[in-house]
Amino acid sequence: METSLSVNDSFKNSKNESHRDSFKIPPHRNIGVWNKDEHHKFLVAVLLYNRDWKKISKFVGTRNITQVKTHARSHLKYEQHILDTANILVSFSHSFTF
């Protein structure tokens, strides 16, 4: 007798299995949104190690190299957005005479 499993069946988690267990994430590593402490450590590490992702990951302690790179990319994108907005506001304010 053949047993057929759908793709969805192979990815279902049991009710007792956590998200962390299903991906085999070590207990000392985090997933999802970075907390304030992790972000602060990230900023300090970037100042210390520039773009040495391995050292930054080790400094943060709870994120792997891929997570650090992704966070850096989104953080830099956010900083660029802030700078662009500030430049627009400065340009706009110069168009007024007081």
CATH superfamily of the domain at 33-93: Homeodomain-like
Task: Indicate the percent of residues in helices.
Answer: 55-70%
- Please identify, by name, the CATH architecture of the domain at 33-93: Orthogonal Bundle
Report mean pLDDT, rounded to a whole number: 78
Task: Give the low-confidence spans.
Answer: 10-14
Fraction of residues in β-strands:
under 5%
In sequence order, what are the helices and strands, one letter per element?
Answer: HHHHH
Which fold name is given in CATH as the topology of the domain at 33-93? Arc Repressor Mutant, subunit A
What global shape is seen? elongated
Individual helix count = 5
Radius of gyration in whole Å, from Cα? 22 Å
Please report the total strand number as a whole number.
0
Main beta sheet, described? none
CATH secondary-structure class of the domain at 33-93: Mainly Alpha
Helix-strand makeup class: mainly alpha
Head-to-tail CA distance between termini: 87 Å
Topology of this protein?
Elements lengths: L6 H5 L7 H4 L13 H14 L3 H8 L4 H30 L4
Describe this entry's structure for a reader:
There is one protein chain. The protein is mainly α. It has a domain at 33-93: Homeodomain-like (Arc Repressor Mutant, subunit A), CATH 1.10.10. The chain is built from five helices and no strands. It has helices at 7-11, 19-22, 36-49, 53-60, 65-94. The longest helix has 30 residues, at 65-94. The radius of gyration is 22 Å and the shape is elongated. 8% of the residues are buried.
Q: Can you summarize this structure?
A:
The protein is mostly helical and 98 residues long.
